[in-house]
Amino acid sequence: MYLVPDGDELEIANAAADYIADAMPIDRLHAANSADLRADVRRGLGEMGWYALALPVAAGGSGLSPVEHALFFREVGRQCGPLDVMAQCLAALTIDDAALRTTIVSGEASVSLAVADGEDMRLFGAADADYALLVSRDSAKLLDLSRCQAEARPSLDLALTMRVAAHDLPVIASRNGEYVWMMGQLATAAQLVGIAEAALDQIVEYAKVRETFGKKIGSWQAVRHPCADMAVRLEAARSQLWLAATAMKENHGDAAVHLDAAKHQANQAATANADTNIQLHGGIGVTDEHHAHLYLKHSLVLAKLFGGRRELLSRLLHAELVD
Amino acid sequence: MDLQYSESDREFRAKARNWLTANIPQKRRPANGRTSADFDREWQRKLYEHGWAGVAWPKECGGMGLSGLQQVIWYEELARTRAPHYINTTYVALMHAGPTLIARGTEEQKAHHLPKILSGDALWCQGFSEPNAGSDLASLKMRGEVDGDHIVVTGAKMWTTDAQHSDYQELLVRTDPESQRHKGLTWLICDMKSPGIDIKPIRTMLGDEHINTVFYDEVRIPIGNVVGEIDGGWSTAMATLSFERGLGFIGDQLELYERVGRAIDMASKLRLEDGTLAIDDAGIAQKLAWLKTDAMAIRAMTLADIAETDRTGQPDPKGSMMKLLVTNTHKALSEVVGDMMGWDFLEFNGDRSAHPWTYDYLWSWVFSISGGTNEIQRENIADRVLGLPRAR
Prior knowledge:
The complex is a heterodimer of chains A (323) and B (392).
Chain A (H helix, E strand, L loop, with lengths): L7 H16 L15 H9 L18 H13 L5 H11 L3 H8 L5 E7 L2 E5 L6 E5 L3 E6 L6 E3 L8 E5 L4 E6 L2 H29 L3 E2 L2 E2 L4 H29 L5 H27 L10 H13 L4 H8 L7
Helix pairs in contact in A: 1-3, 3-6, 4-5, 4-6, 6-7, 6-8, 6-9, 7-8, 8-9, 8-10
Chain B lengths: L6 H17 L9 H17 L18 H13 L10 H14 L2 H12 L5 E4 L15 E5 L2 E12 L6 E7 L10 E7 L5 E6 L8 E12 L3 E2 L5 H14 L3 H20 L12 H31 L6 H23 L14 H14 L4 H12 L7
Parallel strand pairs in B: 1-4
Antiparallel strand pairs in B: 2-3, 3-7, 4-5, 5-8, 6-7
Helix pairs in contact in B: 1-3, 3-7, 4-5, 4-6, 6-9, 7-8, 7-9, 8-9, 9-10, 9-11
């Protein structure tokens, strides 16, 4: 029993942190046309093997576990990384055909994320993507976008573009079962935990230097106590994330229940911490030049993907844990 | 990371569950008074006689010497089998006084007191807070004057739970009258039968009289009862407080998941005033499921902290985060249950066995104030976890 990242896990996490902070720093989002994954960055991630962390060795991957997958996506979350990164990873886990998979793992072909929305689908990610990945609890489908007529919609979240398309795109690869959904849910929860961390780090750093009434704001209880609450929310969500990732790695019968709980806790921690971060910054917190709004907007998108509040809570009410 | 229980951990769980199932008392614990303390002593004696006393204590001190993870298992099984609650009149002795004596006591003190604590023969209470020193404990003023081979104490202690049932007290007094704050304090073992002690119960909002003000009129305590150094009592007291914020509420942390499960079972059977099944009310169902995730996250935090402590041998500094989360979740659960129980929730005669949810609702304030208020816990987090500039 050990539920803190350790040893090789930490090495992967540190390597991911360095690479992601360099490849897609959150500062990029203050420049024009910075949404989605740029083609050169996409290929760079492919060359480093980041899309294949959890892909079995026999399939050309690193054969690592859901734990490393979660550690990697926490770093993507800290930088409000584009959703294409997750779509690319999950597509690699979906495809059986080796040749097709290789084009995705290498970053040569591009994948965006598709989400069912009533009669239509919402597409998130590069507008010129070759494919879209549509994941549900019981299957994952890779859709061909080459003839897709999608209508662009303005996106609140500056990290991505949003389009709406009809729900009739040709399926070129699919995988049944809940595995891809669970890996997507884990990656999304991990990104949210990354945002909850980044928001807390940002306000703590500011509270140590900013002064009001002749004192650092971090010495006022009106600032200290909400920061303490942010830390508590984060700690709860992060602990449940590690437990869920480990339960999945070890094939526990209740791993899906732990994942649902982890996603709900992560939804709450990220959106609440992003909210408090803006408030405690005062005026500068509502400016476009600051990161604070980026965390909030991206967390709202992630909180709806792979299980939003209503769906998760109705599943969890009667879910049972295994001893 | 791994979530594996070892073979011996699994065996321990099975053994604990079997023993508890066969041995938990059939009769209810009396709500108040001497009979409730007698009930607790009897249960503790039974645990002791069957080798289940002092789960966290080292073996050489007569305890079970369990690893942190095995303590987790023990408290999970206590909750599952609905054994008598571990926070009772034996709590201070087993969870505060004993561990303090183990850390700082002399061989003589340990030999005299530890066996009596384990067997339930000696109950203890805590004498730290005063009428003008609670959250700001270091401002305490009660005097202790060295007089030959005794320390003579005069003054008052407040919020002393179960003083009227206790045999001994952990007493923190100011022995250096010139001293300020954390200096000049001494930690004493006070025999509660000493002449000059007067106990005045404080009736609480729960309707009970567990909490007391204790007055001391020139009470003579032998020098041999000093634990740690004379004028060095703050260091001794901190050994107890860090324990309280670390593992002291581990049972409550793990019990929450069981309690949420019971509330969900209740909601599946209970009809609201308009005839709706409580679980079919979207607001109630969502709150219960949300609290279930809180309880799961608290368990995950507990397992992470315990495993880290087992590995490093150092208590985790995150105890304040845990206490804040547990007390808030406890209160929120009481509120949603109160919402669904309707008028029945407002029936109360002070008996926890008869009205468990209402009792626990009222107790939620005791929980969020005692052992460091939620506000003090937030201060600790701001200082020790986040490293924010000091407010004090």
